[in-house]
């Protein structure tokens, strides 16, 4: 009886042992093999890796992208050619075979420059249309209303048609901190830094005056100027005077610049107020160099103070930044040919269509650079992998979380007769200029 019980216990232990081994093999994917000597060995086979799936909006044949832009209403004159430039570039790419066999599908909503409509359209693009990315996110109202949404969703956004300071980021180290956002055109904060660097290089300025409007554009340019003065330290200083947007009399601000004897002046405002600042300086006899943002380099803005400037017996230089380089004839000819063949010939000389073409280019180049499966993470890595050459401008680099927009700009200057803007300095990167002035 005892012997039978012992045998039964041994059998139970052996069965239990086999059951445990079977369970372990099932969990680890292991199998057993028999050697020539009759011994067993364990061979481990790895479980098959789960295949990485493309991001939303990506199929074997298409990549869906989109935007919300004002293509009707007061800003249609900007939004319509801007989108035409994007669509023309995508049509060019699609007609050439697409990107690795995939054609680009472009979805657009007209938000009429309304932040409420813009936010609703952006939500539709992300959640209903399920676009892979947003390209040419348009206008300060919509961009400002959707930045939190974009960061929360993690969707890549290439090119913002605005220069608001909320986009400026020197260290986008996570999606929540704007890693998926890729501004291209100048951000006002960066421009403020650039104006300081140009004032120092062009006129050896030490004390720089800033007349700024109490709005987003004015405050952001001021922030950039203060940022750069702080970075430089040493003998550099800044004198600040605020005015209201749309002010018709800036005598007090002009006199402050005169009494403080600044070496150069930054007119931190956009089209509606900038001419008033220049005319106010002229009327008060302030003959110091004046620097301003690229948005004021339009002929229509110049016409507002051209007569006053032309009458000056002794001219003081009036400068403007410029980020679209019209001196590169080969690249300009390529744009004109492209927008004519794939868009509408009427937009060949339109500056807004040019910027839309640039937006399309950056979107496509980012996709082309992406290695492996087209996911958001891989796309972000591709955008940071190497410097971009703007087809109608300078260079742009997103490495190490840098999201500060175009740092390469040229410098224009008002002609002595006040009739036009002339080239004053070639297109260069802010850091290159700073290396010379430090």
Summarize the structure.
By secondary structure, the chain is an alpha/beta fold. It is 43% helix and 20% strand. The longest helix is centred in the first third of the chain and has 27 residues, at 2-28.
Describe the structure.
By secondary structure, this protein is α/β, with parallel strands linked by helices. It has 2 domains: 62-186 and 326-406, Response regulator (Rossmann fold, 3-Layer(aba) Sandwich), CATH 3.40.50.2300; 189-322 and 410-437, Rossmann fold. The chain is 43% helix and 20% strand. It is built from 14 helices and 16 strands. The chain has helices at 2-28, 76-95, 115-128, 140-153, 188-203, 216-232, 251-259, 274-283, 299-303, 306-310, 329-342, 351-369, 376-385, 430-437; strands at 30-34, 40-44, 62-69, 103-110, 133-138, 157-161, 181-182, 207-213, 237-243, 264-268, 290-292, 318-322, 388-389, 395-396, 408-414, 421-429. The strands form 4 sheets. A 7-stranded mixed β-sheet has the order 9-8-10-11-12-15-16, with helices on both faces. Strands 4-3-5-6-7 form a 5-stranded parallel β-sheet, sandwiched between helices. Strand 10 (264-268), helix 8 and strand 11 form a beta-alpha-beta unit. Helix 2 packs across helix 11 (329-342) and helix 12 (351-369) crosses helix 13 (376-385). The protein is globular and about 70 Å long. It starts with a helix and ends with a helix. Residues 1-43 have low confidence and may be disordered.
- Low-confidence parts: 1-43
How much strand?
A: 15-25%
Helix-strand category: alpha/beta
Q: How many structural domains in the coordinates? A: 2
């Amino acid at each position: 009886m005892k012997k039978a019980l012992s045998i039964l216990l041994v059998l139970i232990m052996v069965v239990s042992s086999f059951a445990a081994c079977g369970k372990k093999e099932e969990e680890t994917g292991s199998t057993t093999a028999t050697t020539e000597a009759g011994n067993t060995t364990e061979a481990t086979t790895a479980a098959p890796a789960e295949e990485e799936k493309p991001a939303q909006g990506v199929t074997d044949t298409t990549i869906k992208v989109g935007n919300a832009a004002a293509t009707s209403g007061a800003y249609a004159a900007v939004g319509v050619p801007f989108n035409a430039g994007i669509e023309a570039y995508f049509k060019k790419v699609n007609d050439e075979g697409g990107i690795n066999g995939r054609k680009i599908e472009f979805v657009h909503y007209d938000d009429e420059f309304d932040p409420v409509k813009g936010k609703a359209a952006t939500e539709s693009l992300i959640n209903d249309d399920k676009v892979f990315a947003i390209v040419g996110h348009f206008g300060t109202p919509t961009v400002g209303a959707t930045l939190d949404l974009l960061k929360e969703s993690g969707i890549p956004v290439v090119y913002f048609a605005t220069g608001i300071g909320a986009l400026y980021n020197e260290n986008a180290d996570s999606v929540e901190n704007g890693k998926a956002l890729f501004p291209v055109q100048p951000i006002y904060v960066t421009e403020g830094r650039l104006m300081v660097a140009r004032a120092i290089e062009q006129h050896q300025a030490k004390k720089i005056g800033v007349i700024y409007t109490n709005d987003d554009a004015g405050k952001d340019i001021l922030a950039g100027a203060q940022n750069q003065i702080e970075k430089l330290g040493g003998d550099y200083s800044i004198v600040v005077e605020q005015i209201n947007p749309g002010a018709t009399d800036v005598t007090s601000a002009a006199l402050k610049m005169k009494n403080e004897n600044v070496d150069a002046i930054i007119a931190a405002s956009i089209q509606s107020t900038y001419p008033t600042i220049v005319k106010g300086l002229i009327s008060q006899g302030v003959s110091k160099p004046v620097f301003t943002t690229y948005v004021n380099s339009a002929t229509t803005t110049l016409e507002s103070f051209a007569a006053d400037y032309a009458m000056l017996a002794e001219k003081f230089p009036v400068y403007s930044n410029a980020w679209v380089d019209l001196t590169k004839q080969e690249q300009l000819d390529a744009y004109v040919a492209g927008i004519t063949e794939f868009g509408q010939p009427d937009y060949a000389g339109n500056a807004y269509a040019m910027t839309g073409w640039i937006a399309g280019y950056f979107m496509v180049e980012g996709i082309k650079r992406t290695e492996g499966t087209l996911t958001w993470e891989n796309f972000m890595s591709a955008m940071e992998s190497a410097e971009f050459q703007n087809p109608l401008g300078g260079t742009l680099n997103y490495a190490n979380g840098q999201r500060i927009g175009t740092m390469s700009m040229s410098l224009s200057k008002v002609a002595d007769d006040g009739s036009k803007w002339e080239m004053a300095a070639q297109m260069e990167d802010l850091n290159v200029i700073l290396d010379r002035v430090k």
